[in-house]
UniProtKB/TrEMBL annotation:
Any Gene Ontology CC annotation: plasma membrane
Job description of the protein: May be a cell surface adhesion protein.
Naturally occurring in which organism (per UniProt): Morus notabilis
SUPFAM superfamilies (UniProt xref): FAS1 domain (SSF82153)
UniProt similarity note: Belongs to the fasciclin-like AGP family.
Bilayer topology annotation: Lipid-anchor; GPI-anchor
Compositional bias ranges of the Low complexity kind: 24-42
Domain FAS1 as annotated: residue spans: 80-221
Spans annotated as Disordered: 24-81, 231-256
Lineage: Eukaryota, Viridiplantae, Streptophyta, Embryophyta, Tracheophyta
Designated name of the protein: FAS1 domain-containing protein
Bias type Pro residues, positions: 43-56
Keyword Lipoprotein (UniProt): yes
């Protein structure tokens, strides 16, 4: 009887121990894997710490390189207008370019364009210069060549539609409008140019912007001051002076007031020659009459 009680008590202890072990295994955290499990599964990285909430004072941030307002792109400074290169690129203006360079008028044009001034060039073609008489340009002095080239340049920018607003005579870079008149008549886009010696018209636009305009003309503009100069006014004729009170109007007074001038001397010499010729003719006629009268007797 005592042995049975001991066995029952032993089984009861084993049962309680088994229940206690199972309960603690379920409630305890996972145990580290055994050596065999480490060899079978790859190593896991350590877990990262959770981010901490930001504190009330935030550190200053570096300024952004991107501006709030974008600056406009910088415009490159435009190169100055080169009238020579424009004419060379257009072609058929070789003679006019050579005269521009030889007279150095091209330097004046480019200086004006570089200082924000404007110009209009009436450029004759090579065919226009071929239409001149042989030796025309070579017969001109340096000053006349300069004036001829400047006669083809207007001192402001004129678009093709604005020629009708000009007043005649149109002012050019030549000396003045009295000796270098230039008249322009328009009808629509047709622009006629007259110098008093040459009539021509604009046959095309070579180049045009807001500062420089170059137009093609098929004839050289010949100004009156160079190719048809006005004759000089004749010298005033000598006048007879009235004799003073107490003086007679004798031949001595006439010679002292009139014959002293070269023109009067020439007139007196001519009058003397005519008088001599009349005297000789009278003598000859008298002799002839005398001969005829003797023969009649």
């Amino acid at each position: 009887m005592m042995k049975q009680s001991f066995l029952c008590f032993s089984f009861l202890l084993l049962f309680l121990h088994h229940c206690t072990t199972t309960t603690s295994a379920q409630s305890s955290p996972a145990q580290a894997p055994s050596h065999g499990e480490l060899s079978q599964s790859p190593a896991q990285p350590p877990s990262q710490p959770l981010p901490q909430p930001p504190s009330q004072v935030t550190p200053a941030q570096a300024p952004s390189e991107i501006p709030l307002v974008q600056a406009p792109p910088r415009k490159a400074k435009p190169a100055p207008t080169n009238a020579t290169k424009i004419l060379e690129k257009a072609g058929n203006f070789g003679v006019f370019i050579r005269i521009l360079k030889n007279t150095q008028v091209i330097n004046q044009i480019e200086n004006q364009l570089n200082t924000s001034n404007s110009s209009t060039i009436l450029a004759p073609t090579n065919g226009a210069f071929s239409g001149l008489k042989a030796g025309t340009l070579n017969s001109l002095t340096t000053e006349q060549k300069v004036q001829l080239v400047q006669y083809h340049i207007l001192p402001s920018f004129i678009s093709l539609s604005n020629f009708q607003t000009l007043s005649n005579p149109v002012r050019t870079q030549a000396s003045n409008t009295d000796e270098y008149p230039l008249n322009i008549i328009t009808q629509g886009n047709w622009v006629n140019i007259s110098t008093g010696l040459v009539n021509t018209s604009i046959s095309g636009t070579v180049y045009a912007d807001n500062q420089l305009a170059i137009y093609k003309v098929d004839r050289v503009l010949l100004p009156l001051a160079i190719f048809s100069p006005r004759p000089k006014a004749p010298a005033p004729a000598p006048t007879l002076s009235k004799p003073k009170k107490g003086e007679s109007s004798s031949s001595s007074s006439y010679s002292s007031t009139v014959l002293n001038t070269p023109a009067a001397v020439l007139e007196a010499s001519n009058a003397l020659s005519i008088a001599r010729n009349d005297m000789v003719l009278s003598t000859v006629l008298a002799v002839v009459l005398a001969v005829f009268s003797v023969g009649s007797f």
